[in-house]
């Protein structure tokens, strides 16, 4: 799991689809993630990050349960 705290100190929220994983900070807007070897997803996240929120809203990326 990627660190659940952002550099700004706020909590990050994880979303994924079993292959891709994105951790968002809703305070400052920064995100980190894993493209799972998918160069198109990696390019999309870097070039058009606004699509990530659309993928979350459309439930393409769903919340990742925090492991205890």
Give a description of the structure.
With 68 residues, the chain is an alpha+beta fold. It has 2 helices and 4 strands; from the N terminus they run βββααβ. The protein has helices at residues 39-47, 50-57, and strands at residues 12-16, 21-25, 31-34, 62-63. It has a 4-stranded antiparallel beta sheet, with no helix packed on it.
Short note summarizing the structure:
The protein has 68 residues and is α+β, with helices and mostly antiparallel strands. It has helices at residues 39-47, 50-57; strands at 12-16, 21-25, 31-34, 62-63.
Q: Structural class per helix/strand content? A: alpha+beta
Beta-strand percent range: 15-25%
Enumerate the spans where pLDDT stays under 50 for 5 or more consecutive residues.
Answer: none
Gyration radius from CA atoms, angstroms? 11 Å
Number of domains: 1
Task: Please summarize the sheet with the most strands.
Answer: 4 strands, antiparallel
Q: What's the pLDDT, averaged over the residues?
A: 90
Strand tally? 4
Descriptors:
2 helices; single chain; alpha+beta; 68 residues; 4-stranded antiparallel sheet
Secondary structure: elements and pairs:
Elements: E1 12-16, E2 21-25, E3 31-34, H1 39-47, H2 50-57, E4 62-63
Antiparallel strand pairs: 1-2, 1-4, 2-3
């Amino acid at each position: 799991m990627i660190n659940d705290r952002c550099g700004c100190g706020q909590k990050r929220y994880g979303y994924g689809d079993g292959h891709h994983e994105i951790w968002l900070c809703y305070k400052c807007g920064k995100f980190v993630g894993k493209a799972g070897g998918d160069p198109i997803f990696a390019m999309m996240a870097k070039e058009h990050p606004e699509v990530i929120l659309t993928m979350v809203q459309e439930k393409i990326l769903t919340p990742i349960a925090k492991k205890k």
